[in-house]
From TrEMBL:
<dbReference type="InterPro" id="IPR000639">
    <property type="entry name" value="Epox_hydrolase-like"/>
</dbReference>
<protein>
    <submittedName>
        <fullName>Alpha/beta-Hydrolases superfamily protein isoform 2</fullName>
    </submittedName>
</protein>
<dbReference type="Pfam" id="PF12697">
    <property type="entry name" value="Abhydrolase_6"/>
</dbReference>
<dbReference type="GO" id="GO:0016787">
    <property type="term" value="F:hydrolase activity"/>
</dbReference>
<dbReference type="InterPro" id="IPR000073">
    <property type="entry name" value="AB_hydrolase_1"/>
</dbReference>
<dbReference type="InterPro" id="IPR029058">
    <property type="entry name" value="AB_hydrolase_fold"/>
</dbReference>
<feature type="domain" description="AB hydrolase-1">
    <location>
        <begin position="95"/>
        <end position="349"/>
    </location>
</feature>
């Protein structure tokens, strides 16, 4: 990561920054030096493996990925942070799209253009420690750092209360952020939310050598392909192979392994106690054939009691609907865990309608 001092660079200049590697002092201000476009229009900071991807939606969205300078806390250092930035600013609240655990903004390759077509101002962000940011000098990738990074990006560029969308573990990221920075979040959309896991559990206690071995396994194509087959509802093998390449593209970033181990060792997300503190209107979207989250059972030792005083077992999503003070649920038929990928038109309409509703 390049440590950048940007002084008082005007917001309009920052918003226009694309694929930048470094910033230099120039006439008392800052001169932004860009990389220029790579082959086939891909930003040169993307791994070369992007050329092998066949999915036209992924290729198109990859060409639009930018790096914007985002301040690190109260310091004068900046992270060149990857995202897909909207082409125009619109009147409705901006929609900000997070992604799942160990993924990237390319998750939104099929739904993002539909959100734009509907007239929404949509941002697709890479959460700190994942995606395609410049993290050469690795910052902490714990929950507090991810939250702070998202807030600084919002404060610098988005600047208005947003509709924050989080799929799977991204729902935990969204809940954590909404509770800590309620002024930044108008509404929440949670897609097949994974919010009851108590962090990374015993993985946080692994010796570093073992943790690195485990993370190396996480990157392997066979494991990613297996996860892909679980996540999607009945797609052809050829498409699953290509989508696996899309899903693991960020794993080729040179800092990925260190950032992932750092996150695991930090303990990860545990937002169970924060769920009831969410004040924003919330839409829960769930794929009816989700094999990863929706059919799991949740145990709560304090809030749920049966008439026989036994623990009352309910599904994750029903428990979440009960605990969120202002939430409703929408099921999507014939869809798996990554509903925003395999049913993009339906998800985009749900998000658009919810964002515009009073």
């Amino acid at each position: 990561m390049a440590a950048l001092r940007l002084g008082s660079l005007p917001p309009a200049t920052l918003a226009a920054t694309t694929a930048t590697k470094k910033c230099e002092r120039f006439n008392g201000g800052v001169k932004v030096v860009g990389d220029g476009g790579g082959d086939n229009g891909f930003p040169p900071f993307l791994p070369k493996e992007v050329e092998k991807i066949k999915d036209p939606f992924a290729r198109n969205l990859a060409r639009r990925i930018k790096r914007l300078p985002v301040q690190i806390g109260c310091s004068e250092s900046y992270i060149m942070s990857s995202c897909v930035q909207p082409l125009v600013q619109t009147d409705p609240s901006p929609v900000v799209l997070l992604h799942c655990f160990d993924s990237s903004c390319l998750e939104w390759r099929r739904a993002y253009p539909l959100l734009e077509e509907s007239g929404l101002e949509a941002w697709a962000l890479d959460v700190l420690g994942w995606g395609f940011s410049d993290l050469g000098s690795l910052p902490p990738c714990n929950v507090a750092s991810k939250r702070c990074h998202l807030y600084q990006l919002w404060k610098s560029y988005i600047k208005r209360p947003m509709v924050l969308v989080g799929p799977s573990l991204g729902a935990a990221v969204a809940i954590d952020f909404a509770v800590n920075y309620p002024e930044a979040v108008e509404k929440l959309v949670l897609i097949n939310p994974s919010v009851y896991a108590e962090g990374t559990g015993n993985l946080a206690k692994l010796p570093k050598v073992v943790a690195y071995v485990g993370v190396s396994l996480l990157k392997t194509f066979p494991l990613r392909l297996y996860a892909n087959l679980l996540a999607f509802d009945g797609i052809p093998l050829s498409k699953s192979v290509d989508w696996t390449n899309v899903g693991r593209l960020h794993c080729h970033m040179p800092w990925w392994k260190d950032a992932t181990v750092n996150f695991m060792a930090s303990g990860g997300y545990n937002v169970v106690s924060q769920i009831k503190q969410v004040k924003q209107k919330t839409l829960i979207i769930c794929g009816e054939n989700d094999k990863i989250v929706s059919n799991q059972l949740a145990m709560d030792h304090t809030s749920y009691h049966s008439t026989t005083s036994d623990l009352f077992l309910i599904t994750i999503l029903k428990r979440l609907l009960f605990e969120l003070p202002n939430a409703r649920m929408q099921r999507v038929p014939d869809s798996g865990h990554l509903t925003h990928v395999d049913k993009p038109r339906r998800v985009a309409k749900l998000i658009s309608d919810f964002a515009r509703a009073k």
